[in-house]
Amino acid sequence: MIVFFDIDGTIISDDNNHIIPQSTVNAIQTARKSGHFMYINTGRTIMNVEPKLKNIGFDGYVCGCGTYIECGNDILLNRTLPRNLCHEIAQLVYECDMTPLYERSDAFFTDKRLREIGAFKDLKALFKTQGKDISKDISDTDFGFDKMVAWYDEKSNLEQFKRGIEQEFDYIDRGYGFCELAVKGFSKGTGIQTVCSYHNIPITDALAIGDSFNDLPMLEAVPNSVAMGNSPEQLKSSAAFVTKDLFDDGIEYALKHYNLI
């Protein structure tokens, strides 16, 4: 069987502590030793998957909402948006008065002209402690991105922003003044399909585990869909199985339920 895990709120706590329960580590390692494939499937780009996550041991990664796919030593996909589109979106974000983080597989970019809204300051501080460089700006000659997130508040023109991106992106509102853009035609679900084809594994033998609304394409892609106990009720209703909370050994409970450990 092949299992796809979201990161934040599923493997690692979605707060400033970023704790990985030891039961999660043990369960993933045990399932992998038993011959099952273990994959990360995240909205994060690959450079934002920190070593303590990689050190758990995975067979590959689906990152950037399906725009980057790595299976073992093979990179199957690494898609960056056209340069002109990246600049068009950056201008739209500027006009709408939001705080963006443009994400690429090898870099982050910000827009230093714009104010810092909401939890962006906390993310900057976290990235600093993790040694991640977010000094690059949209004015840099190599500016480009695979996907992006943005923060907004009552001063932002969110409706103009949504209209401006609707042809090229799927808009995902993460709540608390925070949104994520996934490139149309790419998702956590398309990433699952690509990886299953690579391993010649039927989708019926795939399991996906997530906790938030950007995991919905992943959960809808497989019959064996699992929502964490700490998920919103609406997401739980979309899943085939609801496991326990992250800190109540939810990953271990789910893998036991499907007889993987």
Detailed description of the structure:
By secondary structure, this protein is an alpha/beta fold. 29% of the residues lie in helices and 23% in strands. It is built from nine helices and 13 strands. The strands form two sheets. An eight-stranded mixed β-sheet has the order 5-4-3-2-1-11-12-13. Helix 1 runs parallel beside helix 9. The longest helix is centred in the middle third of the chain and has 13 residues, at 83-95. It is globular. The termini are close together. The relative contact order is 0.18. The mean pLDDT is 95.
Write the layout of secondary structure elements.
Elements: E1 2-5, H1 22-33, E2 37-41, H2 51-54, E3 60-63, E4 68-71, E5 74-78, H3 83-95, E6 99-104, E7 107-109, H4 120-129, E8 147-151, H5 158-165, E9 169-175, E10 178-183, H6 188-199, E11 206-210, H7 216-220, E12 224-227, H8 233-236, E13 241-242, H9 250-257
Parallel strand pairs: 1-2, 1-11, 2-3, 11-12, 12-13
Antiparallel strand pairs: 3-4, 4-5, 6-7, 6-8, 8-10, 9-10
Tags for this model:
261 residues, 13 strands, 23% strand, alpha/beta, single chain, 29% helix
Mean pLDDT: 95
* Structure class: alpha/beta
Rg (CA only): 18 Å
DSSP helix fraction:
25-40%
Tell me the major beta sheet.
8 strands, mixed
Count of helices? 9
Instruction: Give the end-to-end Cα distance, rounded to a whole number of Å.
Output: 11 Å
Approximate shape: globular
Counted beta strands: 13
The ordered string of helix (H) and strand (E) elements is: EHEHEEEHEEHEHEEHEHEHEH
Question: How much of the residues is beta strand, in percent?
Answer: 15-25%
Sequence stretches where pLDDT stays below 50 over 5 or more residues: none
Strand order of the largest sheet: 5-4-3-2-1-11-12-13
